[in-house]
Amino acid sequence: MPRDNMASLIQRVARQARITFRSPAGPAFGENLHRLQQLLDEVRAEDLHLAPRGPSAAAAAAGGGIPWGGAVPPVSYMHICETESFSMGVFLLRSGACIPLHDHPGMNGMLKVLYGTLRIACMDTLPPGAAAAAPPPSAGGGPCHRALYRSRQHYTPASPPCLLSPHTDNLHQIDAVDGPAAFLDILAPPYDPQHGRDCHYYRLLEGQPPAGAEPPGLPREVWLMETPQAADFWCGGEPYPGPRVCL
């Protein structure tokens, strides 16, 4: 079936996101969220005028005016739209790039892969006092938090959207696997440090399993240490080339 109106698809996604996240505690939230998932699952890279690209194309797109000594950012962001209740844009990861483990305080989120393959590790924070053991003695550094390491899965354009809520899968790490990747991202409400929604980064406090040993199973409880943003991670900006969204 021909995709007759590409602009209407991303426009409908934005309108449904506005409806869904305007009242996240309302009785129709579950139904609205399901409808948003269905629409988001339809989106493809070509709908947003995107195509997979290698390092040289990424450098050309991001070139000029980058205050990083001429370095190309490992991750770029294309802003599409933002309201008080949600933001939407596209993240582009270079081959081998990683968005480090981070949280989304009090936020819902949806992620749909547009091209490439992502490996996404998802975790939940556990309430204070839930820890069954003390943090590793060698942790040092920032505050430590007990968490539930829930899943570590690969996502492709054929995968359904990856979801997070204020309490489930709220922390995640995103790695580009075997080449560049891009995903459409919806966060609700947007990050806002003045309203307690700042982004925090974490490091998993686990040693490597012995050679030949099976990795620990999931889900399992782990310790996380809060860290500053990594020096080798930053996010550049690129213009969004797709259909305009009006809200």
TrEMBL record:
<dbReference type="InterPro" id="IPR014710">
    <property type="entry name" value="RmlC-like_jellyroll"/>
</dbReference>
<dbReference type="Pfam" id="PF07847">
    <property type="entry name" value="PCO_ADO"/>
</dbReference>
<dbReference type="GO" id="GO:0016702">
    <property type="term" value="F:oxidoreductase activity, acting on single donors with incorporation of molecular oxygen, incorporation of two atoms of oxygen"/>
</dbReference>
<dbReference type="InterPro" id="IPR012864">
    <property type="entry name" value="PCO/ADO"/>
</dbReference>
<keyword id="KW-0408">Iron</keyword>
<protein>
    <submittedName>
        <fullName>AEDO dioxygenase</fullName>
    </submittedName>
</protein>
<dbReference type="GO" id="GO:0046872">
    <property type="term" value="F:metal ion binding"/>
</dbReference>
<keyword id="KW-0223">Dioxygenase</keyword>
<keyword id="KW-0560">Oxidoreductase</keyword>
<dbReference type="GO" id="GO:0005739">
    <property type="term" value="C:mitochondrion"/>
</dbReference>
<dbReference type="InterPro" id="IPR011051">
    <property type="entry name" value="RmlC_Cupin_sf"/>
</dbReference>
<keyword id="KW-0479">Metal-binding</keyword>
